[in-house]
Recover the amino acids of this structure.
């Protein structure tokens, strides 16, 4: 995780450095615009990275919960285990909602990025 975040930071640090080195060739308005575009792209990249990391963490937690549920004995009548059935339904609903929210966020981020590119 740290390596990927460091790579993003280093890449944008270099881009901002190159922009600063060439400030004398740009109008003040152009410089400010390019600086803002770079900063917005940096925020997008970091946010995508953090959301991807969160998705991986949530998936791992889900898998661990499923493993615990399947490995810990839950009673004599496994096929009539109401708690197990309700837990599965609850987890399924939570993850469907989580992934739907995540997908809509990614779509809105893509739309925002396309709007920025069109400007």
């Amino acid at each position: 995780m740290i390596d990927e975040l460091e790579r993003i930071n280093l890449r944008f640090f270099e881009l901002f450095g190159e922009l600063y080195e060439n400030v004398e060739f740009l109008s003040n308005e152009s410089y400010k615009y390019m600086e803002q575009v770079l900063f917005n792209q940096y925020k997008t990249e970091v946010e995508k990275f953090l959301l991807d990391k969160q998705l991986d963490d949530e998936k791992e937690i889900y898998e661990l919960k499923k493993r615990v549920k399947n490995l810990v004995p839950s009673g004599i009548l496994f096929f009539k285990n109401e708690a197990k059935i309700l837990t599965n339904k609850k987890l399924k609903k939570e993850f469907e909602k989580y992934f739907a929210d995540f997908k809509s966020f990614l779509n809105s981020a893509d739309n925002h990025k396309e709007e920025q590119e069109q400007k």
The radius of gyration is 23 Å.
